[in-house]
Amino acid sequence: MKSFHFLWAALFSLFGGTGALAQDGQPASYVVADIFVIHSKILGEDRKLAIYNPDNVGGNVLPAYPVLYLLEENDMPMVAGMVKYLSSYNEQLPAMLVVGIDGAGERIRDLTPTHSLYDNLGKLDSDPQSWLRPSGGGDKFLRFVREEVMPFVERKYRTAPFRILAGHSVGGLTAIHALATQPDLFDAYLAVSPSLWWDKGAYLDQAIKRLPASPSAREFLFVADSPEAGPFPIYMKRFLDVLEVRKARGFPWTHAYYPNETHGSIAAKAYYDGLRFLYPQWNVEDPNRTAQSIRSHYRRMSERLGYDVQPPFGMVSGWGEDLLRREKFDDAIEVYRINAGNFPTSAAAHGQLGDAYLRKGDRASAVASYGRAVALAPEDKELKAKLDSARK
Predict the structure, then answer these.
(1) How far apart are CA 118 and CA 267, in angstroms?
(2) pLDDT of 28
(3) How many CB atoms lie within 10 A of CB 379?
(4) According to CATH, what is the number of the domain 5-278?
(5) CA distances from 363 to 46, 240, 334 (A)
(6) With a cut of 50, which residues of the chain have pLDDT below it?
């Protein structure tokens, strides 16, 4: 197993907006994640969490964030960067919390559902120092996630009731194990090159038997693989055949095969495609969008995903500005009201609404909105000047 210490140190200086400003030409940190150490009574050890918080890095904030729980410590910078890019720059995903769970050098212990000494080629490894010796702690690990990690995250951040579990290799196996044994724990699963060969396929047979006979139409599964050695393709086909039956019963899942990738390189493409599978049309592309069409768009998404999906602050602000430029004042007001309702303590939201009222010529409503904005940000001189001007 690769050392994990360098990665966690690097997370402090990779890319985020919370580092101190550089002074006199000295470098400043560019931070991707908040780092916490929590003590697990269940595992009997300290574990690190790296948590990417969208509030720190951009304007496309949400009232509450879906949470992506990531089992691959080495993939944390890539996945957090992907979420940031697709939610802030291209607006193809909602901003979301990404929780990277430190493997602590115990991936085989924590991310395997049964104890087994058979490797990926089906060969018995009876060496006393075999890397497979610690295996079989998957149930205890999922209990740690349920009872210790999730409550910690939900206390500290604004979380939406939509949880995604993403894992690669034995992490992908854990995603399938969670779906089969604790289907209420997550709402979506990204299983990348899952180690379905585990225990010579014996666990796969167990998992298939334990999959819900009538899975929820709101439990999403994305499975990805690439050319693999050994019996892996046989086990994958067996699993996909079972999923085909469940698809007919309304289970939303999809499979992606990457013929030009390897077990190691597949992750970058698979995480991207898996997230796009969950949110195939996040943005409202209609150039003639109105508040009604925006609300209808996200209402449909809410019905599909099973939680209250709201548009992000920055996108709504941009739509409102576009409507103001086209002098569609009533439409702009209704759009800005979305932000004012979703972010009632945001001075910016009420200030933008005041701008729209003023452009329409409704000074009384503009004064009311500017007044709320100033009450929330009494030190903001620009808002105070707008309020004073609207009162004249």
Answers:
(1) 24
(2) 72
(3) 8
(4) 3.40.50.1820
(5) 58, 62, 16
(6) 1-19
pLDDT digits (tens, 9 = 90+) for 175-208: 999 999 998 899 999 999 999 999 999 999 999 9
pLDDT of residue 350: 97
pLDDT tens per residue, range 242-276: 888 877 567 789 999 999 999 999 999 999 999 99
What is the distance between the alpha carbons of residues 374 and 390, in angstroms, rounded to a whole number?
A: 13
DSSP string, 9-76: HHHTTSS-S-SPPP-TT--------EEEEEEETTTTEEEEEEEE-GGGT-S---SSEEEEEE--GGGH
Query: How far is 123 from 108, CA to CA, in rounded Å?
Result: 17
Residues of the chain with CATH 1.25.40.10: 291-391
The residues, any chain, with a CB within 8 Å of residue 322's CB and separated by 6 or more, are none
**Contact by Cβ (8 Å): 165, 178:** yes
Residue 84's alpha-carbon distances to 34, 211, 222, 281, in angstroms, are: 15, 33, 21, 17
The alpha carbon dihedral of 176, 182, 183, 186 has a sign of negative
Q: Where in the chain is the domain with CATH 3.40.50.1820?
A: 5-278
Extract the tokens encoding 360: 């329409």
Helix (H, G, I), strand (E, B), or coil: what is residue 131?
coil
Structure-token pair, residue 121: 């080629």
Tokens of 46: 């300290």
Domain 291-391 has CATH 1.25.40.10: yes
HSE-up of 28 (CA within 13 Å, CB side)? 11
pLDDT score at 244: 87
Read off the amino acid at residue 24.
D
Burial of 246 (0-12, 13-18, 19+ CB in 10 A): middle
